[in-house]
Amino acid sequence: MRSLRIDAVLVQAVIAGALSFAHLHDLAAAAGQTGWKAWAYPVSVDLLLVAVWQRLRTARSGLAWFWFLVALVASLGANIATAGLLDLDHVPDWLRILVAGWPAIAFLGGTLLAHSPTPAGTPAPVRPTPTAAAPQPAPEVLEREPLVTAEPVPALPEAAPAPVPAVAVPPALVDHARKVATEHRTRTGTDIDTATLRARLGVPEDLAGAIAAQLT
Fold first, then answer.
1. What's the pTM value of the predicted model, to 2 decimals?
2. Burial 153-184 (b: 16+ CB within 10 A, else e)
3. Most CB atoms closer than 10 Å: which of 10, 15, 65, 70?
4. Which residues of the chain have pLDDT under 50?
5. In whole angstroms, what is the distance from residue 216 CA to residue 75 CA?
């Protein structure tokens, strides 16, 4: 368990605030502000001090120091007045008037501190902006080597068709083929072609071509 450490400055602040709060209450009550109104005066003085402190954090202007002195005099004056130097049973009229007018004075001071512009010599707080990403360099384009086109290969000369070997045709087959051709010419009036001759004789194609060559 974390040990508690007593801060001397914090203790002094609490004691000073409590005593000042009580003295302001007693002075307001002696000046004719009874009930809850007497408790509102110390709260008003403390709020003015808070407004001054916030203003001094951003700009140390003369306006902020002026209202700091006003709040300090109000708080310190109450401490001194209630220390026996003032007869709280017979408060002077000027003090009654000052206590009665304090709420308007404190409201004026708080409004001026909250809405007055920042002095020209004081830089306004700048909010950090996100750092823009550095532009990335464009990727290098690799130079392609020129494509080497292969030269067309010259076409080889077409080989001449091999001569058809001569087919030996028996003379008897030639005589029979001649009779078939004569019969075909008599019946159709045209010469017989190789395909018909081959079909009629039932011989291979090369042999039918050799026979047809001998019939012409």
1. 0.48
2. eeeeeeeeeeeeeeeebeeeeeeebeebbeeb
3. 70
4. 1, 141-142, 162, 164-165
5. 149
What's the rounded Cα separation, in Å, for the pair 109 and 54? 13
Q: Exposed (0-12), middle (13-18) or buried (19+): which is 200, by Cβ within 10 Å?
A: middle
Mean of pLDDT over the chain: 77
C-alpha to C-alpha distance for 78 and 33, rounded to whole angstroms:
14
DSSP labels for 126-173? -PPPPPPPPPPPPPPPPPPPPP-PPPPPPPPPPPPPPPPPPPP--HHH
* Residue 13 Ramachandran class (φ > 0 left, ψ -120 to 50 alpha, else beta): alpha
Measured at the CA of 11, the angle between CA 10 and CA 12, to 5 degrees, comes to 90
Q: Using the structure block, give the residue that is written with the tokens 């609490």.
A: 14
Q: How crowded is residue 79: how many other Cβ atoms within 10 Å of its Cβ?
A: 15
